[in-house]
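Per reviewer request, we include the raw input and output of the structure prediction for the construct analysed in the revised manuscript.
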Amino acid sequence: MGIIIAGVAVVLLVLWVMSCQRRLAVMDENVNNAMTQIGVQLSSRFDALTALLDLTKGYAAHESQTLIETIKSRRSMITAASTPDDVLNQEGIISEALRRISMVEKRYPELKANESYHKCMNAVDSYEKMVHTSRLIYNDSVTKLNRELRMFPASLLARGFGFQYRDYLEAAEDKTNMPGMK
């Protein structure tokens, strides 16, 4: 009888450990997925920004070409393994490009009247909103994972399974100073 009780206790313990590991794995994967989604949105935003820069070539050819080359050299892909600092770095590149486009737009009012320019600027703005939503989802996923990692008894097993706390995506300092999108 004692062996049966011990066997049941061991089985229950193994099932609990498996359940805990699976729950942590799902949460960790949600964080990875959210970071990947940010990468997809940033990539789309870079593509829209490049199209916008192509439109400015007719007005400020040298400045646009220099900016396109700078963006291509500094752009990197955001993946599940990326950190919040990687995201902030990429957003900084986009902010710099938008500031420079805004300067070109001020010097060439006919650019602002261009319908294609408006479509591209709206696309850039749309992707910015998607990035914002993806950031919220990422931070929510990080909150859930970090909370679980701190709570007993999962905290006992988490490090043994290789799960670690994740950093939040903080708002970029220069986000409030970005030029208007419309």
